[in-house]
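Before the break, one more example. Copy the sequence into your notebook; we will annotate it together after we see the structure.
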Amino acid sequence: MNLAVNARDAMPRGGRFSIQTSNVKVDKRCAAEHPPMKCGAYVVLSVTDTGCGIDRETLPQIFEPFFTTKEPGKGTGLGLSIVYGAVKQCGGYIFVKSQPNHGTTFDIFLPVTPEGITAKEVTAPSASMRGSETILVAEDEPALQDMIRIVLTKAGYTVLGARNSADALSLLNSVNGAADLLVTDIVMPGGMGGRQLADAVCAIRPHIRLLFMTGYAAEKLIEPLLTSGHVLITKPFDSDLLLRKVRETLDRDKQARGASGS
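Here is what the structure looks like once it is written out:
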């Protein structure tokens, strides 16, 4: 999706966007030409656009966190770094070919697994991970927000969904601050990020609990959160991890009160 969004932005007057897949066996010669690639069988995902392209000076920087050539407010500089991180987590490799005014192609090499993968059995959330609290979710990616809403609703929670910080504050005001937990992405559109949103929400509801999400474990984003004791969940995450983190965050104050009372 991140590659598709970048391709769209690179073709403001339209163009062609294509996705191709192929099976490739990388031999010693090919691996030597693309270090640190290893020999073996790969599935290749090639994503191509006919947009404005990337110049030679910019190419080495495109996977760096927070690097962007877009105008202020138009991009966070995290899209390609998230792609890079996801590919590396799979043991794969990503290469880019581009020239100004001649489009861009990203070739993603994912290693073939020798064993079949069985589908994970879907089970209902256990009683320990269910709840009845109200949760405000601030996430600008529609597919992810829908997934979070479905998972939390099935577990018994009431979910308020917001696409940005302004919507989140408006929702909170409309329900008179009746929310027990704020789940927010750290990087949000509209000028107010997740940290600033959390501060504004806490001013309205001082006892609300906070759960932060991030798609890139950048030290300057993560370290202040961890040192201040906040709970953090990194993308991508599955429903089990989400439910555990939500329940952990909601129960923290209860556990603290129980320990002090004993």
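The two ends are 50 Å apart (CA to CA). Confidence is low (pLDDT under 50) at residues 255-262. Try to locate both features in your own notes.
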